[in-house]
């Protein structure tokens, strides 16, 4: 039934998925992190095809520690656009 369906045909326009750090307080000093910046990039997975990943990056106002989305990092490395395979390897 869906054997002829390709990932690119599921979404005519790339969907946007938002990612943010999972922390509430800085683990070093307990301060509430603040938004440093947001960034977007195209990510490609074998399962759903391409999408726009919008990531919010937080920083600690006291010590400057940066916090990124571990969920996004588990899917794709920072400088790559292709998602990891099931065994944890990244496509180059």
Topology of helices and strands:
Blueprint: H1 7-10, E1 16-19, E2 34-45, E3 49-59, E4 66-67, H2 70-75
Parallel strand pairs: 1-3
Antiparallel strand pairs: 2-3, 3-4
Short structural summary:
The protein is mainly beta and 92 residues long.
Sum up the overall morphology in one term. elongated
Proportion of beta-strand residues: 25-35%
Indicate the mean pLDDT: 81
- CA(first)-CA(last) distance: 32 Å
Task: Supply Rg.
Answer: 16 Å
Order of helices and strands: HEEEEH
* Assembly type: single chain
Counting DSSP E segments of at least 2 residues, the number of strands comes to 4
- Output the structural class: mainly beta
Which segments are poorly predicted (pLDDT under 50) over 5 or more consecutive residues? none
Can you count the helices? 2
Tell me the major beta sheet. 4 strands, mixed
Number of domains: 1
Tell me the helix content.
10-25%
Molecular structure report:
With 92 residues, the protein is mainly beta. The chain has one domain (7-75). It is 11% helix and 32% strand. It is built from 2 helices and 4 strands, in the order αββββα. It has helices at 7-10, 70-75, and strands at residues 16-19, 34-45, 49-59, 66-67. Strands 1, 2, 3 and 4 form a 4-stranded mixed sheet that branches. A hairpin with a 3-residue loop joins strand 2 and strand 3 (49-59). The longest helix has 6 residues, at 70-75. The two termini are 32 Å apart. The model has no long low-confidence stretch (mean pLDDT 81).
């Amino acid at each position: 039934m869906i054997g002829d369906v390709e990932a690119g045909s599921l979404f005519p326009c790339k969907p946007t998925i938002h990612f943010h750090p999972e922390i509430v307080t800085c683990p070093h000093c307990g301060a509430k992190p603040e938004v440093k910046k947001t960034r977007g990039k195209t990510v490609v997975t074998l399962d759903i095809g391409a999408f726009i990943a919008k990531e919010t990056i937080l920083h600690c106002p006291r010590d400057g520690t940066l916090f990124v989305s571990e969920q996004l990092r588990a899917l794709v490395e920072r400088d790559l656009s292709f998602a990891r395979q099931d065994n944890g390897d990244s496509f180059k």
